[in-house]
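Example for tutorial group B:
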């Protein structure tokens, strides 16, 4: 009985704290999109690139509209690139994006797939670079900071 309860608790805790980890590889060949390390992960993401006069640039990934509710982590070449929650087919709550070295670059806050609340972008030295405020996907204001963390400008948007 004791072991049965322990097993049940362990099994339920795995489901409560599950995350879907998606791993991609970026090749050195600039004429190839990201490659899924596990082909089954292609059910979650669409990968692609932009093209101008035959030149490929701006490789990207985006979540498909049919992904199940869960926490997602996306890795490129074994470095975390993006992390957050999808609920009701939309990004929800805090999403974090990272640079090619796995260092935090920006924290977004979403509500029903729209930016809603503060977004914080960081300099390479980990000090804040820009703080933006959004409501229902529309920018309200933003503040820019220099690499020493000092406020240099503030911009407001009016409807």
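The residue assignment follows.
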């Amino acid at each position: 009985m004791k072991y049965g309860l322990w097993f049940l608790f362990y099994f339920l805790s795995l489901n409560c704290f599950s995350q879907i980890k998606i791993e991609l590889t970026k090749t050195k060949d600039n004429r190839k999109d990201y490659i899924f390390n596990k082909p089954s992960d292609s059910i979650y993401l669409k990968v692609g690139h932009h093209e101008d006069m035959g030149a490929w640039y701006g490789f990207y990934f985006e979540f498909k509209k049919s992904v199940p509710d869960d926490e997602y982590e996306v890795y490129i070449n074994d470095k975390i690139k993006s992390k957050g929650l999808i609920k009701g087919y939309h990004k929800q709550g805090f999403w974090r994006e990272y640079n090619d070295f796995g260092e935090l670059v920006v924290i977004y806050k979403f509500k029903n797939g729209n930016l809603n609340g503060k977004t914080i972008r960081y300099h390479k030295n980990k000090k804040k670079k820009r703080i933006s405020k959004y409501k229902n996907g529309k920018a309200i204001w933003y503040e820019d900071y220099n690499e020493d963390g000092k406020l240099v400008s503030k911009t407001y948007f009016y409807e």
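DSSP finds one helix and 13 strands in the chain. Compare this with the pattern of hydrophobic and polar residues in the output above.
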